[in-house]
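Worked example

This section walks through a single chain of length 70. The input is the sequence exactly as stored; nothing has been trimmed or padded.
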Amino acid sequence: MRGIMTLKATVNENGRITGREDDRDGVFHCWGAEAEDGENNWGNFTVAIVEFADGKVGTFRPDYIRFIDR
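Given that input, the structure is written out below as tokens.
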């Protein structure tokens, strides 16, 4: 398993995403898939499955994690 840093969006006063910053460190387990079903559309996408030191598990879009073990 590899060490990762999750990222969170930074937003300006208008609520627009202006970048990303480090959030929490964790351990990457594997890639997975999630799906969204909206009223007028749907889609599926790749996610990273991440475990944190407190035992909680979360999923993140690939552009919201950074590998830190290399």
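What to look for: The beta strands are 2-11, 17-37, 42-51, 57-60, 65-67.
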